[in-house]
Amino acid sequence: MSTGSHAALMDGIYRRQRHIYDLTRKYYLLGRDRLIEGLDAAPGDTVLELGCGTGRNLAVAATRYPQARFFGLDISAEMLSTASAALAQKGLASRVTLAVGDATDFDPESLVGSGRFDRILLSYSLSMIPGWQQAISAALSALAPGGSLHIVDFGRQERLPRWFRAALRNWLARFHVTPRDSLREVLESESAKLGASLCFESLYRGYAVRVVVTARHPPS
User: Fold this and answer.
1) Fewer CB under 10 Å: which end of the chain, C or N?
2) Is the CA virtual torsion 187, 190, 192, 195 positive or negative?
3) In this structure, which topology does domain 3-214 adopt according to CATH?
4) Which CDD domains match (predicted)?
């Protein structure tokens, strides 16, 4: 799917849903706050969210880490419109820079004025990005030395009843969401190429996964 086609699809899906997105998603997008707690962003750190949607995570993170700088990228202009309004309402507009862009192929410097990031997060967005492997590669390429990539998304549901797994996936497919069953293998391969460390955690009997990939520091 081309970037333009995917952007149009996301805008179409969320043109109306964006107004109730956060209210409904909090019941099944599990692990997002654990991801934000694990960012451990220091004063002056730059934090980028790819697929930032309504800005919910950025608002929570910017409140928790008041001395860090935040950036959000999303392919849907409709979602970013909601994010911009929400951040302004919370008094965070001056601390969060938003931009329309494709998570699989983006130039951080031209989009948000920062070339490398200390923290990058992907919260339930890889399961909606057709070229999700490219999004992982792009995120890792944009990490500063010693920086970390944080991911939370749907898992394999391997320890949940089969009927639940089937019902969940059929329902998610209605929203163009597909759990990435090979996520761990892709991350292991990408981490090995870069000499990065990988922490992969299964949550809620496999309902979701939480991931941290930490880039290595250059030799001193």
Assistant:
1) C
2) negative
3) Rossmann fold (3.40.50)
4) AdoMet_MTases
Amino acid at 202: S
Q: Considering only residues 43 and 18, tell me which one the structure prediction assigns the higher pLDDT.
A: 43
In sequence order, the 6+-apart residues with CB closer than 8 A to the CB of 125 are 50, 51, 53, 103, 135, 153
**Helix, strand, coil content of the chain in percent (nearest 5):** 45, 20, 35
Task: Dump the DSSP string for 11-24.
Answer: HHHHHHHTTTHHHH
Q: What is the bridge-based pairing of β-strands 208-214 and 143-154?
A: antiparallel
Residue spans of the domains in the chain: they are 3-214
* Strand-by-strand arrangement of the 96-100 sheet: 96-100, 69-74, 46-50, 117-123, 143-154, 208-214, 197-203
Q: Could you tell me the pTM of the whole model?
A: 0.87
Taken in order 171, 173, 177, 180, the sign of the CA dihedral is: positive
Does residue 177 carry a pLDDT above 80?
A: yes
**Tokens 């639940």 map to which residue?**
164
